[in-house]
Amino acid sequence: MFEGFEVAEVDTGEARIFIRRAGSGPGLLLLHGFPETHLMWRDVAPKLADRFSVVCADLRGYGRSSCPPSSPDHAPYAKRAMAADLAALMTKLGFSRFMVAGHDRGGRVAYRLALDHPDRVEKLAVLDIIPTADAWDRADARLALGYWPWSLLAQPEPLPEKIMAAAADAIVDNALGGWGSSPDVFPTAVRRAYVGALCDAVHIHAICEEYRAAATLDREHDLADRSADRRIACPVLALWSGHGALSEWYAAEGGPLALWREWADDVRGGAVPGGHFFPEELPDETAAMLGDFLLPARSA
């Protein structure tokens, strides 16, 4: 996996962010979701590295990145803090401006990065999400049961930490097999890496803090932006699972594109014929859609 990619750990001031990077051209930051790490991009990133300088990062608290101490309000794991890490990361790597694509939790960090650092982000791709405040505003039994990490991992400590520590393999298996993608998509080594990333007590606590922040501060930050009519300035690509929740739950509102158009003027995209983990399930198609949006014209 990631043949030809350089490995590094970058000190961003508040965290140490683990990355793999390769390629040349415009900067492209790829961000993972839960319960994944940067390994989710293993088949997509190499396909983009001939057109972009690709950076695959583990979010703070995930994978091989560090876990800064949290606080009672969970602010160190709000998407605002995680986005600040990545703005600093890309500065240290020499990119004053760059593009970013994020799946699941990484998508939430990606759009916060575009909102908080509009002068840095040229284009944004969000994969299988709607904005956090919109998701909470519309939350019902389907969200509570279908995407249980939202409610379970946001509970006060130590309950979710204890559950994850005792059953990391069951958590990974439930997610990888229950959110619309076939378990066969994930090689044994990748599944083992995802389980291993949930077995360290410090990382477990950090991940739970990230979910607690999503239920509180992230929501508040979105609502404040909405109230101030603060919008995403750059073009946005929204892709979502054609077999999943976003294709069904928000039809009455006009679907994910209509929801994202409340946050940005230039939004395009559509459903992908796969499950929630479609970047791992359909890497060729995902890479092609990202590449065509982020850099439509190939250089001669």
In total, the number of strands is 8
Shape: globular
Low-confidence stretches: none
CA-atom Rg in angstroms: 18 Å
Q: Helicity, in percent?
A: 40-55%
Cα distance spanning the termini: 29 Å
Task: Please tag this protein with its features.
single chain; 300 residues; alpha/beta; eight-stranded mixed sheet; 15 helices; 42% helix; 16% strand
Write a brief caption for the model.
This protein has 15 helices and 8 strands. The protein has 300 residues and is α/β, with parallel strands linked by helices.
Structure, explained:
- The protein has about 300 residues and is α/β, with parallel strands linked by helices.
- It is about 40% helix and about 15% strand.
- The chain has helices at about 45-50, 80-90, 105-115, 130-135, 140-145, 150, 160-165, 170-180, 190-195, 200-215, 215-225, 245-250, 255-260, 280, 285-295, and strands at about 5-10, 15-25, 25-30, 55, 100-105, 120-125, 235-240, 265-270.
- An 8-stranded mixed sheet has the order 1-2-4-3-5-6-7-8, sandwiched between helices.
- Helix 1 links the parallel strand 3 (about 25-30) and strand 4 (about 55).
- Helix 2 packs across helix 3 (about 105-115), helix 7 (about 160-165) packs across helix 10 and helix 8 (about 170-180) packs across helix 9 (about 190-195).
Reconstruct the topology from this structure:
Elements: E1 6-11, E2 16-23, E3 27-31, H1 45-48, E4 53-57, H2 79-92, E5 98-103, H3 105-116, E6 121-127, H4 132-137, H5 141-146, H6 149-152, H7 159-166, H8 168-178, H9 188-196, H10 201-215, H11 217-227, E7 236-241, H12 245-249, H13 255-260, E8 267-272, H14 278-281, H15 283-294
Parallel strand pairs: 3-4, 3-5, 5-6, 6-7, 7-8
Antiparallel strand pairs: 1-2, 2-4
